[in-house]
Records
---
Amino acid sequence: MQDILIVSGTRPEIIKLAPLYHALCSLVWARVRWLHTGQHEEMACQMLNCFAIRPDFVLQREGSTLREFSAGCRRQIDQVLQQHACSLVIVQGDTESAFVGALAAFYHGLPVAHVEAGLRTYNLARPFPEEGLRQMISRLARFHFPPTARSRLALQAEGIADDAIHVTGNTVVDAQHWACHRHGVQRRAAGRGHLLVTFHRRESWGDGVFDICSAIADLARQQPELKVLFPVHRNPVVREPVQDLLGGIGNIELCDPLDYVEMQQALADAWLLLTDSGGLQEEAPTFGVPVLVLRDETERPEAVQAGCALLIGPSYEAIVLHVNRLLADPHAHRRMAQVQSPFGDGQACRRIVAVLERQLAPAMPISLAA
């Protein structure tokens, strides 16, 4: 048996690793364990329950800063790796949990598999610290699973050997297929549907929050038939100005963060998505929902290149301009909505398992006829 440890701590990691976990658990040659770092606490627990995952190891979150969390997480993962034999550590994306998991595996001489490898902005400040963490994981990984051909090119340009790179598609699409089938997610909205809004990243704080909210407020007042659904992040840096600027506007619904299935339903019923989220940039095209990305850079340019997303930044003028343009031009909206998702076909986990099976599974004995 090959012992495989999956390390995750945040809501997006759980979403993208859950279908891979279930695929690996079905194998006869692998024993899979899930380690939860506690980086996202309440949201992560909801997500684990949604995907029917019970972690084998749950770490105690230490400290209130990212530095303190990182130090405590590294120490506890070291203890797990010392006490339990392991053949492979799997991490996903660009979180502190992913980087610390990869670094701990590296110091224990264990191969690292990096799911969703090769995404880049090449601007270490945006997103921070994710861009730097993702690049550092690429220096440590043995198996690189980029979701797209563009991500593969980035890894090749950084000198990573071709035989270590395996394009798979993004496991987020696998997760969507799993959840939609299990929970019956499908479009239920009559007519156009709502404008779905989310933002939470550090680069959106301060003036960005004010500009985004001011634009949404003016659009809602000018277009009273336009319904706006806004799940508001719990961080008070976001939550307080959002409540001040958008609370009380009749066609804007402010709500608590949605769980995964609720968010998939919100996407299925959406007309347009305004977001600074990386994961939602990947998820919206599955439902044919155009995306306006509230960032100046994105590590997921495939959606922009395909034509189902526009990178507009967080400015008031850009938001008002592009939302009004799509309201006035249904053909432009339809062109964006009809673009096939550039992030995969829902078979990413099958491809990852095939690679790991070739590399890790013990050779099956051959029975010779007498």
---
Amino acid sequence: MIYSVTLNPSIDYIVQLEEFSEGKLNRSEGEYVNVGGKGIMVSKLLTNIGVENKALGFLGGFTGDYIYSWFKDQGMAEDFTKVGQNTRINVKLKGNQESEINGKGPSISSEEEKDFLNKLAGLNKGDTVIISGSAAPGLSKDIFDQIIKICKDKEADFVIDTSGQALRKAIYLKPLLIKPNFDEVSELFGQEFTSKDEIIPYGKKCLEMGAQYAIVSMGGDGALFFDGDSVYYAPAVEGVLVNSVGAGDSMLAGFVGSIKSGLEPLEAFKWSVASGTATAFCQDIATKDHIDEIYRKIKIERL
């Protein structure tokens, strides 16, 4: 089983504007609502490509009830921990520029945290836990460490999508995959990069530190894949960027879902890039048909 962990889920309220003017009345040209949170987006993609998964995390209040109903309507599996405060709402403004206002999220009590960790205690050998995004207020500062320790104790694989010191610490604990972007690799090693060639030695270092595989996403400049001593590059596919939210989560889910379904690592990387690209060209997480269409356009170069 693949489990996604979303420690601070959200309802994303997306507002489309011709142009946003600060300090003035702005009228929407359209709006829509997505269920958000990085782990939930991972579960959406896995479900769309037919890979069994279950979402874990925290939900509360009327906003949490909306997400519970959404999971039921989508036929998606979840085992969220119910909390006393409202799940957050994030506002995304899409005008002449893309702006975001992310909610703080509910404060998680020690009992609610304990209930969540008890659910993870049911992991089996060979399961995979995908830990994505930031932690909600109130959670223990070492919550990522606690989750990873349970995975290690249960002989389950873990994947972590975070940044900074949390990422550095997790790499040494041998994750199945890390997927930092260009800026996150720069932050991780305290280096500035101007090209993909400059990143390659540091991608290799991520594997030396403990990661089994590493993908470095570079947006419009494509993606790099590190597997043992081999490095591969996938140039970006041309298309219209519709929504960058969820593209990185889709890349991660596409890789994990593929490799856990028995595909070879390089083939999993190809599906990863197709998944992330397809989502970037959609309003929400990409469908299987759209991913299949993009997959046929993916080219892989060995560097």
---
Amino acid sequence: MRAAVLHEIGQDKLEVLDDVEAVGFGPGRVRIRVRATGLCHSDLSAMGGVLPQPAPFVPGHEGAGEILEVGEGVTRVKPGDRVVVCWLPACGACPACKRGQTELCLAGFMNAGTPNFRRPGGDVFGFAGTGTFAEEVVVDAGCAVPIPDDVPFDIAALIGCGVTTGLGAALNTADVEAGSSVAVIGCGGVGISAVQGARLKGAAEIVAVDPVASRRESALRFGATRAVPPEELPGAKQEVTGGEGFDYVFEVVGRSATARTAYENTRRGGTLVVVGAGAMDDHLQLNMFELFFDEKRILPSMYGGGDVLTSYERTIALWRAGRIDLAGLITHRVPLAEINEALDQMRTGTALRTCIEI
């Protein structure tokens, strides 16, 4: 079958090969025919070594498709079912799951160290234990979440990561208060989803911050009340909050510099939500006096900060009701053979989300 493979960490191009085999099928596992997958910035981060991932590997973790085959003991799905790929399935038995913090379950991360694919030259891993830049993937049954027939594969793929992460940051982690002021730093697919979440919660002012003009324009269409490049954030802070700072600031870039900016633009007693996935050696510096004196809440948001399955269902309900726009997030479409074009669209910021049609 065909799959896009990164041979070594640090390479900036993927090679689309037709000699890749999905492996690992057996009890408790399912084989999925991938129909659509989104390109998330985390894929680029893994390719560049920012996020830890063994190589060679097939990127992609935001996908949807059809069940081809189920292993012994699998009862939740059957061949022919439409599913979204969940890269962070909950085991239901660990301490995090028992506390209701299923987004902190480590079972999914354990899958990342087991090869999902094989080539004549040896094993190939799947990013985050999945690897959806391939025609087929074999994953644990818990990674295959059934979706209703009326949800298109491209929409379902977005729900698999970016939309759930951004919406959840506003709805679950921050629980944005109606009438509040919000700033979102970084307005790709995840940031725009955070904008939509803040709008749903009734935020009075939503300032979108991004260096790319087209993304700022998109943010306004999705519910931002104003959109500015980073250098104009201080002026927006003054105009919207009288210089006090925003009630909520979402950092959706994953860098210490933007997290520091987010902290400085959060009002005293306000909430900074860290959504971006950054590098282990990139340290955010805060002094002990400001932590004490400002009393700002710093809330990391992992995969939307809530039960993933509940979040999927909520997102589908909101989409059906026309309360959120998911189709509009897909600004570009490319076939798997042109995957490197999608990478360029992400790197230049010209795309909110590129759908790779497989």
---
Amino acid sequence: MRAGWPTTHWRRLNGPARIAGVDLARGLAVLGMFAAHLLLIADGFIWTDPTTWMAVVDGRSSILFATLAGVSIGLVTGGRTPLPAKRMAVARLKLVLRALILWVLGVLLILTGVPVYVILPAYAILFLLVLPFTSLSARTLLWIAAGLGIVMPFVQPVFAGLPIDGEVDAMLGWHYPFTVWIAFVLAGLGVARAGVTRLVVQVRMLFGGAALAAVGYALATLPLPQDDEYWASVWTAEPHSSGLFEVIGSGGFVIAVIGTCLLLCRLRVLKAVTLPLRATGAMPLTAYTVQLLVWAAVALTTLGNTSDFFGFVALEPFWPLAIGTILGCTAWALLIGRGPLEWVLERATRAVGPSPVRR
């Protein structure tokens, strides 16, 4: 290590090369996924009942991940202005390679037998689906995202009824159906094109997202247009339902969360206080993967198999895993730098060409 390396890593994590609010939102998404995996959460969120508040992570954490994927894709393909054709071609090829690596890693994590719906295969497919949209403007992207978010929940029950084998289901990440979730990724891409570092955009994200959340969750309480299975699967905001009001309500909620994180990190004191969460959000793939590998190792050692969900949850692993991940990511970010799996992804795609955008 060269002299001055602690300062170098500090500047990398806190300097203009990174958008602190995006890292903070990713860190919250990581912890939310941990909670959704490892805690027995109440069925439904009720404002007046604090014992149900942890249910906020159910479904919304993974939607936050998907939306942030769109933001990241937007940043590496030009930010507010899409890259010129030749540089965009390089960026798209890098995204294809990243998608393939993510899919392979996701399959390997599925093979551990840990009883969670691994999001990485869906992530990989969403990366590929969004590529044709990367040259579009913010306005166009947000309108397309809104259109798909309204239309696809009405189509999804047809797809959900298809006889898909369980293994194929896992390999496609069908628990996070890309037919609907592409709307979240495009919304994130549209936000990146609008300029996530701009104060006006951040304020609009906060208030616009909150308004969408309020409208979506309020409409979900209205009676079904028809009392049948089809409308029950469309007319709902239930987590992981891909229903119309989950898309509107939870989609708006995560946009408001990202806007809030961006606004908070404008304040130096809050940016400093959130450093551990931001360090975790700077290496989300590593944090997510290590969580599942530790789960598999501990469950195999103590329970004799990796698939006993309730047996593992009875060990109360959430706080040790969450705190260990935050401390480990913070130490790694300050002492070593980029997360190990993030470094591997960058190295694996370097042969295609230099990074088209330096954030």
